[in-house]
């Protein structure tokens, strides 16, 4: 008998980057020079003092043993003091802080720890895929909150039907936002979200993975800066973007002690936590000099400016984001009919430029594409120039032929 996947697994859309990576490999095998602006995987190296801390820690045989699954006390302490310095928010390192094997892992597992079959979760669309897929994997019901450009990609919480709101167990928000690059400019929006979660008795999951990558002087808030937030909210952070440590797999959750406790309990059955030498390097990242974070901000902002102006020159008017590491643009007119997936697939196969189709971030992402700012400025200029010639060459009949092949 063949093993069959569960209904839950079958209900998931194919993971976008699997398909994109297969096409990328095909284009490379055909000899194309690939410019990969697909996945948001930082290309900047992790700072030397963090790598050195890893090297030293790995020399200590104690770090070769199983780590405690809820994290080393020194990492939980370092997270709590970083929060105090950065957001002026007080956290109990024993009950309100949990290190994670990346925030993706934590978000998916928290949903599994909390949801009963069919329980409702309010999920933005477009969104970072785990916010949606994590709900399906946990057996919950994802109710979409559209993020529209005319509202600055903030959801309209007042538009959630009260019958849906009353059955909501979790509300998910993510600012600075992936994929749109939108930010919260007015803290009143966060207050409204907290009031909503209080009124309907749901937990607010606030994904703050990009809080440190902001531009033009914008400073991203934490939900935990708001009075009473810890009663209603849990916030997720990632070392992947802040410290260019995506491959190290380390992140954390902070806030509501019950939610943190449920996640810790759930993970206790599944994993042994983050290798201790990586946790020690993460302590060095949080407690060490901040120049590497400032430098990352400077580099991404410079790349953003280069890409936005090069795309505009190429006939693709896009807006500069204030934070995160993405440029989110409405497809150029010539590409509207073919849709974002076909546009991006053809762009890979014909020009070797990899960007993400908006549809990969949910149905409301259709009509857009996302550029990750993970290549040097000259490669971004080169990508825009290839895109210019691609747009000029577009003809619907060619598109259909390729999509079938
Ligand atoms: C909004 C958002 N949250 C979480 C993550 C996952 O981060 P981590 O590497 O910590 O799992 C990402 C990664 O792209 C993201 O965009």
Task: Describe this structure in a few short sentences.
With 405 residues, this protein is an alpha/beta fold.
CATH architecture descriptor name of the largest domain: 3-Layer(aba) Sandwich
Counting helices, strands and paired strands, the structural category is alpha/beta
What is the ordering of alpha helices and beta strands? Answer: HHEHHEHEHEHEHEEHEHHHEHEEEHH
Bound molecules: pyridoxal-5'-phosphate
The global form is globular
Structure description:
This protein is 43% helix and 14% strand. The protein is of the alpha/beta class. The chain has a seven-stranded mixed sheet, sandwiched between helices. A three-stranded antiparallel sheet has the order 9-12-11. A two-stranded parallel sheet has the order 1-10. α6 (129-137) links the parallel β3 and β4. α2 (16-29) packs parallel to α13 (339-351). The two termini are 33 Å apart. The model is unreliable at 397-405 (pLDDT under 50). Residues 40, 102-104, 128, 174, 178, 207, 209, 238, 240, 246, 251 line the site of pyridoxal-5'-phosphate (PLP).
């Amino acid at each position: 008998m063949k093993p069959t996947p569960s209904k839950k697994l079958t209900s998931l859309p194919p993971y976008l980057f699997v398909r994109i990576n297969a096409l990328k490999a095909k284009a490379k095998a055909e000899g194309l020079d690939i410019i990969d602006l697909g996945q948001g995987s930082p290309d900047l190296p992790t700072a030397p003092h963090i790598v050195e801390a890893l090297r030293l820690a790995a020399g200590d045989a104690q770090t070769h043993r199983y780590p405690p699954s809820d994290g080393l006390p020194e990492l939980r302490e370092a997270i709590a003091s970083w929060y105090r310095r950065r957001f002026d928010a007080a956290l109990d390192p024993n009950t309100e802080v949990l290190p994670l094997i990346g925030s993706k892992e934590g978000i998916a597992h928290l949903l599994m720890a909390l949801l009963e079959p069919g329980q409702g979760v309010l999920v933005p669309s477009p969104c970072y895929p785990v916010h949606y897929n994590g709900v399906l994997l946990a057996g919950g019901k994802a109710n979409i909150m559209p993020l529209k450009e005319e509202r600055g990609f903030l959801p309209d919480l007042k538009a959630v039907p009260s019958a849906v709101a009353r059955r909501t167990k979790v509300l998910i928000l993510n600012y600075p936002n992936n994929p749109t690059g939108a930010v919260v400019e007015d803290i009143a929006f966060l207050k409204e979200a907290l009031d909503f979660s209080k009124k309907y008795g749901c937990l607010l999951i606030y994904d703050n993975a990009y809080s440190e990558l902001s531009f033009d002087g914008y400073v991203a808030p934490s939900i935990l800066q708001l009075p009473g937030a810890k009663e209603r909210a849990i916030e997720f952070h990632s070392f992947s973007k802040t410290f260019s440590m995506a491959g190290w797999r380390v992140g954390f959750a902070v806030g509501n002690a019950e939610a943190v406790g449920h996640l810790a309990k759930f993970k206790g059955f599944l994993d042994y936590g983050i290798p201790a030498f990586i946790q020690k390097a993460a302590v060095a990242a949080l407690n060490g000099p901040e120049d590497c974070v400032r430098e990352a901000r400077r580099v991404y902002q410079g790349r953003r400016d280069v890409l936005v102006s090069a795309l505009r020159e190429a006939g693709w008017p896009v807006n500069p984001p204030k934070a995160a590491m993405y440029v989110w643009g409405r497809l150029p007119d010539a590409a509207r009919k073919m849709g974002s997936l076909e546009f991006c697939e053809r762009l890979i196969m014909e020009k070797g430029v990899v960007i993400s189709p908006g549809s990969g971030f949910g149905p409301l992402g259709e009509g857009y594409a996302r550029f990750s700012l993970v290549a040097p400025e000259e490669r971004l200029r080169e990508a825009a120039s290839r895109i210019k010639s691609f747009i000029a060459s577009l003809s619907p009949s060619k598109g259909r032929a390729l999509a079938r092949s």
